[in-house]
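Model the whole thing, not chain by chain.
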Amino acid sequence: MGVHEIEDAKLIFNFGYNGADSHPIVQRRIVRAKQKGATIICADPRVTEAARIADVHLQLKGGTNIALVNAMCNVIYNEGLVDQHFIDTMSVDYDAFVEIIKKYTPEYAETICKVPAELIRKAARMYAKAPSAMILYGMGVCQFGQAVDVVKALGSLALMTGNYGKPASGIGPVRGQNNVQGACDMGALPNNYPGYQNVTNPDVQAKFEKAWGVKLSNKVGVPLTHVPQRVLEEKDPAKKLHAYYIFGEDPAQSDPDVAEIRETLEKLDFVIVQDIFMNKTAEFADVILPSTSWNEHDGVYSCCDRGFQRIRKVVEPPSTVKTDWEIICEISTAMGYKMKYKNTEEIWNELIDLCPNFAGATYEKIEKYGCIQWPCRSKDMNDKGTVFLHNGKFATADGKGKFYTAEWRPPQELENEEYPLSFSTVREVGHYSVRTMTGNCRMLRNLEDEPGWIQMNPADCEKLHIKHGDLVKVMNKRGWCITRCNATERVAKGATYMTYQWWIGCCNELTIGSNLDPVSNTPEYKYCNCRVEKIDDQAAAWDYVNNEYKDLRSRMGIKMIGEEA
Amino acid sequence: MRKFVKGNPDLCIGCRTCMIGCVVEHEGRRIFEIDPDGYDFNPRLHMVKTAKISVPVQCKHCENPACMAACPVNCIKVINDAVVIDTDSCIGCKSCVQACPFGAIDMVSKIGTQQADGSMRVVANKCDLCVGTGNGPACVRVCPTSALTLVDEEKLKEVVCDKRVATANAAKVFADAKEVE
Ligand code: SF4
């Protein structure tokens, strides 16, 4: 499905996705759908903007996603709301799936996810009875130790109701980062060449070896989230990581448990950072390669709906920076592999010729149609790509959709006496990702700046004798930070939330790096425990925050205009 | 009738683009060229998020403005049909802030306006409908979801009309109920 289809949806099941803060432009389409009469079901522990306008808000407790999805499937199954013909002809493994969901009656699920059983029934009936229903999910699904299971369970929910292969149906991941789809499409994964071609496949290996004229490895690489362990714990010197080339990423800010990341970066023999501005990781770099920003170079972005779009240079970069591709070419050449391209189109043409699924997505076509959704296999101008991935049959080996769900597993680190609150990272509109791009932007800084906020229920604030706007100390066994208290009815009692971009109010001091989803290797950013402490001397705390921020900025060389360089 | 900007909470997504649009319109493009800490960031509308509502709040440009009546130095005037504070003559007494029933006025300090004792001038701040720019209110233009509308006499009449129809229909229901009795 495509993002534009959201506006025509009859029903949107918005699960763990906060469009208003992550992607306001997608949220705009959800709002339009609502105006055009769409029903909205929102599953989120907070009253997000989507929850606010939803017909049903399933305000579940964090870390219980699969119990809720299983219970909805249970209702649909027990009340005979399934699309039996679709199940019979288009799917496999239904019986095994039913075996698991049988146990998840709404009453049982209520004990886990705290959503009233009747509300679960209501949502399930609404979803099943809609002429077509679209699922949108985000990081509220993916950033848990049990994540891929939930995605598959949501896929099964759509499968049992026949919600595939028609307009405004199916299941859409609204990905966390701009162009993260592009990074995956281009093979920035430990196991793939561009176009999802596996590095362990000998035919694929042979094809790339021939094209590039070099021997290639058939070994799967190290996922990002395994880096600390490969540096700090690996005994075998052949497997230990020694160097780390990081670009467009700020692990010292964005990875969980940043104390461990700092230790990792310190232990590494050699760290290269390639980015547009200084950031926390660059403080550990041996070499910094300054590169151009999004408006200073050409390229192709993939939208979360597999759509390739071109981006174009609008301003001339300063002479002290180079584009990422030029830097890569120069490094490669210096290391003995001569790499030279005239422009991005030449790189793109080489790439699409090596990736059957992208082969038809030429610059010319992207230019003409604005966007090409892969698969697009033919260069013929009439092949405009693929809007629905699963049209008529599923893009699996046997053409059928596979049912799957799993038993609920609680998050790894739960609340306890010492750390009685739950803690989750979230986004806020205005500051993008780790603030490398937005943190120095004056208007956005005016709206929000250090040390950020912790969202808490007013009842919890009252218990701790803290008020909205007070500086507070947030801590657990991994670390602490200072931030401001945001007392809001929009979060449930016992739960707290912080956005992850602040340098001083750095929530990743607390997050947990050890509970990765077994398939995706994504960390459990959305659940750990914490304690919030009142700070009696507010003036001293403000001095601390202001001085830390000033120091950091001056260490990074961020100068005010008019200041001596 | 004076126009005013009204926000629709069913459309607003709480992004605050309107607040930025407001500042850019009033400070001018120079704000992108000067010291990032060297200008005022004083939006004239404010995003309010309660448990169930997200909507920006701003001046209603009342026909009989309580703020204007409360100002002891007559620095609140009607210019081109908008209620406008003349910040040069504002003495910062806060009477208008207290008089306004909507919380549409706040007090802000003006960078680069040192007084005799070195302190900055503090003046009343509120929506002026971008009067004098010729572009109409910036907030309405920049909102990504068209959550803001400039309500004029026509629009208000429409709303009143609709409500009258609703009232008439309710009267019918009421009459039917009477007959049953
Ligand atoms: S710009 Fe529009 S959507 Fe954004 S906060 Fe303002 S009124 Fe709401």
